Amino acid sequence: DQQVKQNSPSLSVQEGRISILNCDYTNSMFDYFLWYKKYPAEGPTFLISISSIKDKNEDGRFTVFLNKSAKHLSLHIVPSQPGDSAVYFCVSSQGNLIFGKGTKLSVKP
Amino acid sequence: NAGVMQNPRHLVRRRGQEARLRCSPMKGHSHVYWYRQLPEEGLKFMVYLQKENIIDESGMPKERFSAEFPKEGPSILRIQQVVRGDSAAYFCASSPNDGAGNQPQHFGDGTRLSIL
Predict the structure, then answer these.
(1) How many angstroms separate the CA atoms of A87 and A54, rounded?
(2) For residue range B69-95, what is the model confidence (pLDDT) as tens digits?
(3) Which of residues 11-70 of A touch B (CB under 8 A)?
C-alpha cells in the first residue's frame, strides 16, 4: 500500500508555462516532505522541502504547497524549461525516506 | 568530487552468484541509507547504517541480503545467491545526521544490477 501517492505517471507542458505536480499522502502524522528530481542513469537530486508548520515554500522557480487537511501537496514550476524534463518524486521523510512512484515531466520547446 | 560515490555503476551476475555493491558517503556524512528501485517504481528503503552499526534494517529482505558500514572504508550491500528478481537499481544516500534536523539525503548515481 502506497503511503505517498503520485497519481499522474506523466505530464507534458509547453516551455514557459506552469508545471503542477501533485502528491497525496495517507498518514496524517507525516510532517516533512521533499521533492527530488531524477534524470535517467543518475541518482535523485534534492529540489525543495516543506515542513508541516508551513503551507508554502518557495525557491526561485519552484514552489511547494502543503494542504494538511487534504493530505495533499503540489510542486509548481514556473516558468517551465526544457531542462526541467525529468522524473519528480514526492517524498515523506521519516528518518528514512518514503517515495512516491514519480511523475515524468516533459517540457516541450 | 565530494558527492556520494557508488561502484560499480553496472554489475552483471548469474543466478546463484554473489553481488557486492559499494558506497562511499559524502565527506563529513556519517549516516548511510540504501534504497532499491524496481522498474516504473519509486525508491524503496532497505537499510540505515552508521559507522559499525545497523540502525534500521526494516526494509531488508530477511534472507540473502546484508549490509555493513565498517569503521574504515565504504558501506557494502551484499546479496548472496542472487535471483532474477534482484535485478534493480540500488541507490545509496548519505546525510550528516539522522534526519531529525531535516537535512536532505544526498544520493549517489546508483548501481544497476542485472541477473542473467
Answers:
(1) 25
(2) 999 999 999 999 999 999 999 999 999
(3) 32, 34, 36, 41-46, 49, 51
